[in-house]
Structure formats: structure tokens, C-alpha cells
Amino acid sequence: MHASRLPSSVVPIRYEIRIEPDLPSGTFAGAETVEVTVQEPVSELVLNAVELQIRQVSIRDARGLVLAGTVTLDERSERAHLRFPERLSPGAWRLSLAFTGVLNDKLRGFYRSRVKASGLRPLPDGTAEAGDQKEETLLAVTQFEATDARRAFPCWDEPGFKAVFQVTLIIEEDLVAISNTSVASERPIPGTHKKEVRFAPTIRMSTYLVACVVGRLQATEPTRVDGTPVRIWCVPGKTHLARFAQEIAAFSLRFFQDYYGMPYPGDKLDLIAIPDFAFGGMENLGAITFRETALLVDERAATHTELTRVADVVAHEIAHMWFGDLVTMGWWNGLWLKEAFATFMELVAVDAWKPQWERWVTFGVSRAAALQVDGLDSSRAVEFEVVAPRDAEAMFDVLTYEKGGAVLRMLEQYLGPTTFRDGVRRYLVDHQFGNAETSDLWRALGAVSSEPIQAIMDGWILRPGYPIVTVTSDDPGGTLCFSQRRFTYLASAADAFQLWQIPINFRVRVNGEVRSMRLLLSSTEERVALPGRLDWLVANEGGHGFYRVRYAPALLSRLADTASDILTPVERFNLVNDAWASALAGLSSLGEYLDLTARFRDEADPNVWTALLTSFAYLTRTIVPTDRPLLETLIRDRLGPAVSRLGWDALAGEGELVRQLRGELLRAMGTLGNDAAVQAEARERYATYRHDPSAADPNVVAALIAVLAHSGGEAEYVEFLEKYKTAHTPQEEQRYLYSLAGFRDTRLIQQTLQLTVNGEVRTQDAPYLVRNLLMRVDAREQAWRFVTENWDRMERQYAPGGLRRMCEGITGLATPALEADVRAFFSSRKISLGGKTLEQYLELLRIAVAFREREAVGLASYLSRLAGTR
Ligand SMILES: [Zn+2]
Fold first, then answer.
1. Which of 32, 78, 317, 541 is catalytic?
2. How far apart are CA 502 and CA 497, in angstroms?
3. What's the CA dihedral at 148, 151, 157, 163 to 10 degrees?
4. 183: which strand partners?
5. 780 C-alpha to center of ligand 1: Å?
């Protein structure tokens, strides 16, 4: 029994909630009747409420006995104590409350989103034309996860207290209201300009999934999937950007019904684009909310990355309708499971929708991000005990989503996709409309697979870190030796010898014959006899394992010689990424890594290039300034052949991944490589594009903008800022906004910094803009000074999650002096970013500075040798 949990002496069964938001004044009034079951005699009810005024408390029993109650609000514990003059006997009661609250601007609870005057007037076909409507319009939006339903109505705001919700909204007659279910009735309220919109009752679900959206909104025509209407909602004038999301939404809904073997648990599915939104998407049953960039997109003008983002988020949220909404964690310690699972399922669905996107290859990039954080001494276990619900806020990170998703993928590949799916189906059937624990999923998977799932998974989920597997072979090459120890970047206090049960798939060529083999490595070291002499070996075959591999030098050189012939793209990605991690950790020299990169000049996979480019960007941030021109030379040397091969123009019939790669290489060549020819060509091409937007592939357009910001000045800045303000799509808006962080002129950097606090950039975006500036070598010192001077203001304006994202930028402040300054600032301020977030950022910064100090001399001589040989 946790003191931080509500008592379960009284449990809610059904809420009837009636809310009347007043958008202009930023307030709302509400009333609710909650059917409750009193389990044991009590004279006090305890439930959650915060920033609400509660009046008129009464409760009645089945025989009509009515008791008036008094209320005490405890703002600190976010609870309301309702006291009654006599004890309530066990049985059914109806609690009635009236309350008022505030529509805040903090993107949580019940809040207001502003639709800035775009000057656009919606046309009947969904597009817009320039009009004269200049006034700002407002939306009222809910965002409840994790614990903010209590800001909108008094409730038992814990995921275990599932109930039925019947919502009624009183709104202006020209507005639209959306909630979790379809509209049951709508009627004007005589003598007012208002109407009452009553929604059908929901299934039994948790409070954090309730949603209400009110405002001027337009919907697409519904697509029907087995009778369920699927619609996209957005502010007027944008429905023409909804087609892509509607297609993946309809596909996902059908796909998941099939995968889960269970019908969709709602009665309609609305996906709603919100102009101000703290997350990517929120899985409210039947009324999923999104930030605009994650839902609205112009397919003809978007990059491959931007389209993938929309598909991913839409599929992710729809996966939750079952896993999360129908079956819900019992408490917040289980939050990781629904997020990891939805991350895994979004990939399964998008991969089925567009196999040519090779989504599981791209997932290597996400897995690498998790391997980075989980390689820290200050990493955490994926699942940990959550005492106060607030602790769970630190769970919204790369370990929950990407590590969690990656270990589920590892398990799925180990068990086989069909067995894994059957276990998931069993879990959903057993717990539908209820709550479950992580161990319930392991039990269901164990039952269908007859494998000790819990024993395998505990090491990956309940303990921080992961292993590095070292592979050696004996001299004649007839025996392999696999050994494990924990991987960390810094010499660590962590237990290096903790053991994991590692499902290892590997591929060997023996006596000229290629074969795949499997091993569950659960001890420190294990030997495998081969049926002959080894030619080569690929450990972590398929690349699904959540561990790193280190090959003995002889094995590595044989592999690197033939990498493009024998390794799949994911395996090549891992080879590069693991080698880079080894260099960062000091297990191998930077020179060895840079030699390896020379073997990838002809690489064709965009994700392998992402691994290479990420390391080049890291080096750019980390090395001493005098070495930078030589590093640029090296980058041009590595990128040059691929840039020339791909050129600037998309070819007819070319795949999307090739187009993506072209854009990313050009961008890197013009920024990290600082290539004058690419910069000059980008200038010309952008000039053409301005007059004819169809003149360049969208992937190249994004590169042009980034390159011009890097090489441009005042004129480009003024233009891009204007383009940001008048953008036609959410993606275009983002592209120009973030380009502002790419300029190198001090005065322009200062101007961008001002935008992050003066209200010109939405608070959902501003923290990311600051983060990007902190990560840029030309802007970071100035940005850091600005952050220290404006900290209080930023803390006030940004949501806690935004502040956390912004601070990620400190990992880019990779000089000894800046590091010392950062440490002094955070210790003097006693700032907490939730969980171990700040410790992790500081450790990442330590790794970068230690790397800089360790490699400075070697790198300088490596680079000048390279320059000398050219
Ligand atoms: Zn999610």
C-alpha cells in the first residue's frame, strides 16, 4: 500500500460529466455525477483534483438518502477530501459535484491552443485562399496523460480505476466538439447561442484517456473500416493535408484488428491536429490528438523523413487503442510496456504498409540512440518502481520507447513473429477492459512459446545497461568464443560483470558454406565448435539484438573487407555504430574508426550513412577549432563519391530511400563538409525553386534550406523567417523554423534566441530551437549564455517536457570550459529535469570532453597525414 495511491475503499463505476468551456475568458464550469461502489464504511471520500474550485458536494444511495458533503482541497497532494456527516454504508452511491476551473496555456489538463490569424479563408474543397479573417481563434483541448485529468474534473485519476465516461459539452453553436465516442445527441439550448453535445458512453477505461476538443474545426470525409468511420480533424483550411494520414490510419486500423485478432474497441476513430501540443500524439480512445507536423502533410512537398514521421506516429497511436486503452497498465511503473509495445507495433504496421521503406533498417538509428543512453553509468532500468505518479514523467524517454521497442523486437525475432503475436493475442483476451502487469505479458508469451520469457527479459527490463559481446576464434578457426560484459563509455562504477541472457543469432561461412546459428549466451563466456574452418563470421545476424559486438582484429578485418557483399544494411549499420561506440569508449582508437569509414564511400543505404554522418557531426562539435578545416577535408573525402554519383536531381522511378539519401548527403556536404561548390549550387537551385516549387525534389529542398542557412547571412535569414511565418504546411514551417538555428552570424543567432522567449515561436517548438543552437558549434556559447540569463523565463514558459528537451542541448557544449560552467550552473540552481535526465546529459557531456582530451593529439596527426597524402 503506497501512501501516494488513493484508497480503494470507494471505486468509481461510471462518470457523467458535463462541461461548459468559455474560450474567450479561459475558464470552464462543470458538473459531474459519479456512480461509485463503497466497499467498506467510510465518512470521507478521497479523489484527485487540482486547480479546481469544487462546490455543491452531495451523495445519494439507492434508497434516496441524500447527504450533503464538505470539501477540502489539498493542492500539494492534488487531492480533494469530501466529508459527509455520517458513514456511507457499503453499496452503490451517486456522488454529485459542481466545479469550475481554468483553461491554462501549459499544454496540459484542459488548455487553450491559439490558431494564429493566417489570413487564409477555407474553401469547400479543403484548401484555403487568402482572406481577410485576421482574428485569432481559440481551441480548448485536453491532454491528460499522465496525471492531468484532475485539472479538468475531480476523479480517481489513477490508471487502475477504470470506469465508463459519459461526456456532455456545452459550446457555442458555431463550434465543434469532439470526445472519445460518437455524438449521441445535439440540441440547441433555447434562449442562448449555445448547444448541448452529448456523447455516447465509453468502454471501461482509465481517466488519462478521456478527451475533449472544442473549437472551429473541419473534418475529412470518413473512411470506413469494417463499419468504423475514420476521420482527420484540423483547423479550417488544412483538410487537403490530411489524405496521407487518413490512408495510414485506415490501413493501421485494419492491420491491427487482424494482428490482435480483435475488433476495434471504440465506435469511431477521430485523429485531431492541434496547433499547440506537447507530445507527438496522444492515444485517447477514439479521439487521438496530434501535433500538426505528426498528422498533416503535403505528400508532394514532404521529405521521406517527414512522411515517415506521420506514418509512425499515426500507427503508434492506433496500436494503443488495444495495447494501452483496452488493456491498461495497473500503475505507472508499467508505462514503459505500452510505449515500448506501441513503438514496436508502429514499425510492424508501417513495414507492412510500405515494405519499400525498409522501416526495420531505419529502426537501427533509434536502437543506436537507446544504446547510447543505456551505455551510461547513469542509465536506468526500463521498468522501475514509481511511487509518486510524477516519477513516471521521467519515463517518457529513449529507454522506454526505443530500448523497450528494441528488446521486444529481439524477443519477437527469437520466438518467431507468429508465436509472439499469439502471445500478444492471449494477453489482450485475458485482460481486456481491465489492467495488467508486465509479468502478465511474459506469462502469456511463455504459455504459447514454452520458453522462460520472464527469466530472459528481466535482465533487459529490470536492470540498466546492456552487454558488449566479444567474439574471438582460435587459431585454426574451428572454435568460436563468445563472452559478455557490460558496455559503458566511461570507466564505470557499474557492475561490469552482471550477466544477461543474450539471444545471439550469428552467421558463419565454414568450408565455403554459409549457415545461420543461434546461441542463448547466459554465462560469462561460451565456446561454439564449428564443423570446419571459419572464413568469416557475422555476430548479431539481422541486427535485432540489443547489444554491441566487438570482433577480434582478424575477424573484423575479414568482415570489413567484404562488408558490402556479405552484410545486410542493418548489419553494416551496426558494424559502423559499434565501431564508433568503441572509439568513444576508448576501447579502440579513433584512427581505426576513421579508417573503417573510408570503406563506406560507396555505401548506398541511407541509414548506414546516418551512422557515419552522426559520428562526423559529433567530431565537428568535439575537436579543437584549429583541426576543423582538416576534418572538413576528411568529410568531403568520405562523402564526395556518393554525392557525385547521386547528383542533384531525382531520377524517374527512383526509390524514396535514394531520394532521402541524396538530400542528406547534400546537406552534410554543404554544412559539415563546408563544401563551397555545393553551397554555390544550392544558392542557384534555391533561386530556381523560389519561382518554381516543383523544380526540386522535396528532400533536396530541405537540404538547400539547411545549406543556405549555414553559408548565408542577413538576406537569407530575413527570407527564411518570413517563410516560417507564412508556411503552407506544418513541415515547411518546421523546416524554416529550424533553419534559423543554422546561421553562423552572431547577430542572427541572437535574433533567433530572442524568438524562443518573446512569444513569436510556439512553446511547443521553442525548446527544440534552443536545443539545436546549443548543439551547433558556431552558436553554442552564445546560446548557453542566453539560457543561463533567461532560465527563469524559460522555466515559466515551457512545459516541463520541453525544458527537458532543451537541456539535451548541453551535451553539445563539448569544451572543458563550457563543461565546468554547465556543472556550476546546474549545481547552483538545484535543477531537476525528472528522474536521471540531468545526470545523463552531464555524463554525455563528460564523455565528449574526455574524448576530446584523449584524442586531440592523435586526431590532429591523423588528419594532417590524410591531408599530406592527398
Ligand atoms: Zn505511445
1. 317
2. 14
3. -110
4. 199
5. 32
C-alpha 748/C-alpha 779 separation (Å) is 10
Q: Are 305 and 660 spatial neighbours (Cβ–Cβ below 8 Å)? A: yes
Tell me the pairing of strands 525-529 and 176-179: unpaired
pLDDT at 136: 82
* Grid cell for residue 797: 514558459
**3-state SS class at 123:** coil
Residue 301 backbone phi and psi in degrees, to 5: -115, 0
Locus of grid cell 483496452: 326
Q: Which residues are CB-neighbours of 443 under 8 A, at least 6 positions away?
A: 453, 454
Rounded distance from Cα 796 to ligand 1 centre (Å)? 26
Strand order in the sheet with 176-179: 109-115, 137-143, 212-215, 176-179
**Cell representation of residue 699:** 528532400
Give the tens place of pLDDT for each residue, 239-271: 999 999 999 999 999 999 999 999 999 999 999
Distance (Å) from CA 279 to ligand 1 centroid: 10
Predicted TM-score (pTM) of the model is 0.93
Q: According to the 3-state scheme, what is the secondary structure of 628-657?
A: HHHHHHHHHHHHHHHHHHHCCCCCCCCCHH
Integer Cα distance of 18 and 96 in angstroms: 11
φ, ψ at 297 (rounded to 5°):
-155, 145
Cα pseudo-dihedral 838, 803, 765, 736, rounded to 10:
-50
- As given in the structure block, the three cell numbers for residue 284 are 485517447
pLDDT of residue 91: 96
* Amino acid making up residue 537: L
Alpha-carbon dihedral 239, 245, 249, 252, rounded to 10 degrees: 170
Rounded to whole angstroms, the Cα distance separating 529 from 217 reads 66
- Nine cell digits for residue 599: 570503406
The 3-state secondary structure of 444-473 reads HHHHHHCCCHHHHHHHHHCCCCCEEEEEEE
DSSP states of 210-276: --EEEES-EEPPPEEETTEEEEEEESTT-GGG-HHHHHHHHHHHHHHHHHHTS--SSS-EEEEEESS
Which residue from 869, 868, 865 is spatially nearest to 590, judged by alpha carbons? 865
Apex CA 697: angle with CA 695 and CA 699, to 5°?
145
Beta strands in 727-835 (DSSP E): none
As a whole number of Å, the end-to-end CA separation of the chain is 70
Residue type, 316: H
The yes-or-no answer on residue 317 being catalytic is yes
Grid-cell match 518570413, residue found: 722
List phi, psi (to 5°) of 570: -65, -40
**Residues 648 and 614: beta-carbon distance below 8 Å:** no
283 CA → ligand 1 middle, Å: 7
Which whole number is the average pLDDT over 729-747? 96
